[in-house]
Amino acid sequence: MKICISGASGLIGSALSAYFSARGYQVVRLVREPALADPGKVFWDPQSQILDASELSGIDAAVHLSGKPIDCRWTRRAKEEITSSRIGSTEFLCRTLASMPEPPRVMVCSSGVGFYGDAGPALLAEESPCGSGFLAQLCKDWEDACSVLCQRGVRVVNMRLGVVLSTAGGALAKMLPAFRLGCGAKLGSGTQYMSWIVLDDVLRVIEFMLGCADLSGPVNACSPLSVTNAEFTQTLAHALGRCAVLSLPEFSLKMLFGEMAKEVLMSSQRASAQKLIDAGFVFTHKNLRDALDFLLNFEKLR
Fold it and tell me: Which pLDDT score, from 0 to 100, does residue 46 have?
C-alpha cells in the first residue's frame, strides 16, 4: 500500500511514518522544505496552494495530520494561524486529491474530542452534538472541509483524538519535569474529564481505520476509560513515586492562558470508544496506570 502523510514531522506523523515503513508500506511524506525533496517526500505549501498532484499518483490512502499546535495563548493572530493550518490545509489537500484521475480510496483526517466542547460527565458518542466555543467550531469546520473528497467517493474517517500520551512530546512530556519534582498539580477542581490515548495505539488506530471499510465519518480515538483531571494527576504522580497535593486555581490558568485555558485545560470531554471497539479494534492500553507504567519504562530503555 502506498500512503501519503501530511504533518509527517510532528509527534504522531514521524512515529507513523516509521511505523508504516517498518510494516512494508510505501510512505510518501508531504514536506514544507523543497530542499528535502527525495523519492519519499513531496513538497507542498498549502498557504500558497502549491502541490503537484502528479507526484501523488498511485497512492492508495492519505493520512492528514497537519496543524499548528493549540497549546498557546489564543491571540487573534494565533487563532487565524490555527484555523488556516487546519481548515485551509484540509480544503486544499482534499481538493487536490479529488482532482486526481484516481484519488486514494480512503483518507484519515485528524480532528479532536474538542468537537464536543465542555460536556461535563456525559459520555460522548460520535452522534453527540457539537459544543460551543472556538475549539468546537474549529473541529466541526475541520471535518466539514473534507466534504469535497467525500463527494468524489473517497471514504473519509475523521479521527477525533483525545490527549495523545508519549514521553517524546505532547502534553505528558511537558508535565513530567514538574511531576518528577513532586510539583504535579490538578487543574482547577480536577473534575473535568480527560479522554486520552497512548501514541502506540494511535498508530494502530490509524492503520485500522485505513483498512476497515465499515468506518467512515467521525470516530473517537481514545481509550475506553477516560479519567478526570484529578485522577490523571494522582495516577501520574504515583507512577513516578511522587505526591501531587497542589492545585492550580482556574482563575490563575485563565490569567496565564486566557481562552485556551477554559476550552482546553478546563473543558470536560468523556468520549466513548465504542464505535471503534464495535468495528473490531482492540486497545493495547486501556488502563491509565498501566499505560503510564509502559511509557515510563520504555523511556528508561531509550
Answer: 94
Asked if residue 133 has pLDDT above 60, the reply is yes
DSSP structure string for the chain: -EEEEESTTSHHHHHHHHHHHHTT-EEEEEES-GGG--TTEEEEETTTTEE-GGGGTT--EEEE-------S---HHHHHHHHIIIIIHHHHHHHHHHTSSS--SEEEEEEEGGGG-S-TT-EE-TTSPP-SSHHHHHHHHHHHTTHHHHHTT-EEEEEEE-EEE-TTSHHHHHHHHHHHTT--EEETTS-SEE-EEEHHHHHHHHHHHHH-TT--EEEEES-SS-EEHHHHHHHHHHHTT----EEE-HHHHHHHHTHHIIIIIS---EE--HHHHHTT---S--SHHHHHHHHHHHHHH-
Task: Give the integer Cα–Cα distance in Å for 22 and 34.
Answer: 25
- CA gap 209, 150 in Å, rounded: 16
Give the CATH fold of the 2-301 domain.
Rossmann fold (3.40.50)
Residue 238: is its pLDDT beyond 60?
yes
Give the per-residue pLDDT at 95: 97
Number of residues assigned to the chain: 302
- pTM for the full predicted model: 0.96
Q: What is the pLDDT of residues 80-127, one digit of tens each?
A: 999 999 999 999 999 999 999 999 999 999 999 999 999 999 999 999
Return mean pLDDT, the chain.
Answer: 95
Break the chain into its structural domains and give their ranges.
Answer: 2-301
Can you tell me the distance from the alpha carbon of 52 to that of 182, in angstroms, rounded to the nearest whole number?
51
| Residue given cell 517526500 in the structure block | 41
Measured distance CA(282)–CA(278) in Å, rounded: 10
